[in-house]
Amino acid sequence: MDRVLFTKGHGTGNDFVILGDPDGALQLTPALVAALCDRHRGIGADGVLRVVRSAKHPEGAGSAADAEWFMDYWNADGSLAEMCGNGVRVFSRYLIANGLATPGPEGLPVATRAGVVRAAVEADIISVHMGAPEVYAASTATVGPLTFPGIAVNCGNPHLVCGLHDSLPLSSLDLHVPPGFDPALFPSGVNVEFTTPGAPVEGADLHVHMRVYERGSAETLSCGSGALAVGAVALRDAGLAEGVVAVDLPGGRLTVTRRGDSWWLAGPAVLVATGEVDPAALG
Questions:
Q1: How do residues 267-279 score in pLDDT, each as one tens digit?
Q2: CB 214 within 8 A of CB 223
Q3: Which keywords annotate this record (predicted)?
Q4: Residue ranges of the domains in the chain?
Q5: Chain centroid to CA 141: how far?
Q6: Is 154 annotated as a binding residue?
Q7: How is domain 134-260 classified at the architecture level of CATH?
Q8: Which one, 47, 108, 200, 245, has least CB within 10 Å?
Q9: Is 223 a known active-site residue?
């Protein structure tokens, strides 16, 4: 394979290798994705965003009438994912920066495996109108000898939101290994979020601190769809039908807003570098 052009970007530290492949010509494989994301022998990232026209991708063709571009998202281990809230904001930044799309009055539509979402751009912040999260079941997660009660949330991809109790600090959790979970409830794996309440912050109704272990990528500095799941649980637990939740992650702050049936995820999305990589040299 010839040298491949790439862009590196991140949303609150959740970082991605972005591959422009408008016509779907790149032969992307799990092994290549894992090699690109290797932080010692590759470029290093939590995942790969392939930028391909919806009409040119078999999973995006059905959305081609609603969104020109399809976000083909791969986790760092080479597995596919349905949705990535930080990824779709970085993906949108890439489209705009490279003159591939311009947000209209209703935002910039992006097709994903979880459906079409729309991005709105305001200076450094990109907000995405996400699908409504579905809070649907109680479950548990284990970290070493500790068991945490949690709530399952479907954000287009699966999440398990676990609140820490008894003043246990988030920093005490060892997330070097995957948390245990119920495989019967999550047969395709799950992103596990751990949360503690935060002090009041200006402009938000609720404030939450969060760490996350993402399936296929291990612990990451941020997870956009995870923040959406955490925001949904926080609003539900507070008895609020609407509101703004500030979610602080190791990589920065994301904001989840619910107004009526609309859910928005907002935060910075940054492109930091461009270059080319020789796939034959990876490994």
A1: 999 999 999 999 9
A2: yes
A3: Amino-acid biosynthesis, Cytoplasm, Isomerase, Lysine biosynthesis
A4: 4-130+269-281, 134-260
A5: 20
A6: no
A7: Roll (3.10)
A8: 200
A9: yes
